[in-house]
Amino acid sequence: MVGVEVSVEGLTKSFGSQRIWQDVTLTLPPGEVSVLLGPSGTGKSVFLKSLIGLLRPEQGSIIIDGTDILQCSSKELYEIRKLFGVLFQDGALFGSMNLYDNVAFPLREHTKKSESDVRKIVMSKLELVGLLGAEDKLPGEISGGMRKRAGLARALVLDPEIILVDEPDSGLDPVRTTYISQTLIDINAEIDATILIVSHNINLARTVPDNIGMLFRRQLVMFGPREVLLTSDEPVVKQFLNGTMIGPIGMSEEKDEAQMAHEQALVDAGHHAGGVEDVEGIVPQMKATPGMPFRQAVARRKDRVRQILHTLPSVAQSAILESLDEDDTPMAAPGQHGQASGYHDDLDADTQVIPVYSPEQHGQP
Q1: Do 150 and 99 touch, CB atoms closer than 8 A?
Q2: Measured distance CA(262)–CA(245) in Å, rounded
Q3: Crossing angle of helices 144-156/115-128, nearest 10°?
Q4: What is the dihedral of CA 260, 263, 265, 266, to 10 degrees?
Q5: What is the distance between the alpha carbons of residues 227 and 332, in angstroms, rounded to a whole number?
Q6: In this structure, what is the dihedral angle of CA atoms 111, 112, 117, 118, given to the nearest 10 degrees?
Q7: Cα 73 from Cα 53, distance rounded (Å)
Q8: Which residues does 120 contact at the CB level (< 8 Å), separation at least 6?
Q9: Along the 365 residues of the chain, how does pLDDT read in single tens digits?
Q10: CA pair distance 185, 252, nearest whole angstrom
Q11: In b/e form, how buried is each residue of 27-47, taking b as 16+ CB within 10 angstroms?
Q12: Sheet holding 59-64: strands in order across?
């Protein structure tokens, strides 16, 4: 089953006199992975909370499965929310419950399934995120990365068609962030859900999504196929992707022209502006782990992007055409072309789903 399309049009949100963002319009394609970037304080998490009806924008529409959640009844909103799974920034686990009971909580709360059925589902989701064997541990007894994955397992137990992920890299080192990224790609391959990730992690943004958007100064700067943002000459986009001080983003969100001119003069005089050099080309997108199903979103995205190709900037068109020529066949599973590094080497050759390797499970720091 393909995930649900989420269509947002003209969305505006304020807290009192403070405008958070205005006139935000975008569509999350069904079954694809999208990332929403932006500096801290630009309202990315507010946007996520608006999508599930926890916050109510003053203007606009949010169409989910044919229903505008800003116009529907409380009963209709309750039903729409069943389509969602949400991974909160801190995992939001109950500290007094072990991982098994945390993951089982939505099933016990919202369904009438027997405990035997609950156990089958919970253990399946724990396996999917690489946490089999850790189900009896309390959240305080495991690492931050494991708590994130436990929160993700809980978000999956009701078989959501839309998954919202708030800052999956928060509090994690770059390596654990990559493991979380791989897990999200694998989940998309496994259940074909529509996924929106809010982040300001550039490596994640370059390698994970099918589509990327960016919020800045209360506006959606852009949203579309990943190649559009990754090849953009928009100053705020280039500054954000390269992590340099040169550009419109300052310590506060606003930076005036005088400050920008001063910083540019320092750079011209030889002062290093931080960040990295521009990355040439587009980093290849992550694929599903060997042995996982092939991501059906890849083929759908190809068809969709071909239809809108003529509307995109020429540099993005070239990057997309190059990517369309690449071989998108799934990577071979272990046993076909050798054991992939970083995965369990004691799996049966016929295993179809390979749990993501976890350093924590192998006693590594």
Answers
A1: yes
A2: 11
A3: 130
A4: 180
A5: 26
A6: 50
A7: 11
A8: none
A9: 678 999 999 999 999 999 999 999 999 999 999 999 988 888 999 999 999 999 999 999 999 999 999 999 999 999 899 899 998 877 688 889 999 999 999 999 888 999 999 999 999 999 888 899 999 999 999 888 888 889 989 999 998 999 999 988 887 788 878 888 998 999 999 899 999 999 988 889 999 999 999 999 899 999 999 999 999 988 888 888 888 777 777 766 566 666 666 566 665 666 555 555 555 668 889 999 888 899 999 999 999 999 999 999 998 998 888 887 664 444 444 444 333 333 333 333 332 232 332 334 444 44
A10: 33
A11: ebbbbbbbbbbbbeebbbbbb
A12: 18-28, 6-15, 59-64, 67-68
Please state the pTM of the whole predicted model: 0.81
Residue 153 — φ and ψ, nearest 5°?
A: -60, -40
User: Which domains, ranges and CATH numbers included, belong to the chain?
Assistant: 6-226 (3.40.50.300)
CB 13 within 8 A of CB 55: yes
Per-residue exposure over 111-120, b if at least 16 CB sit within 10 Å of its own CB, e if not: eeeeeeebee
- CA angle (281, 283, 287) in 5-degree steps: 145
Q: Which two tokens stand for residue 144?
A: 């931050």
Which residue type occupies 153?
A
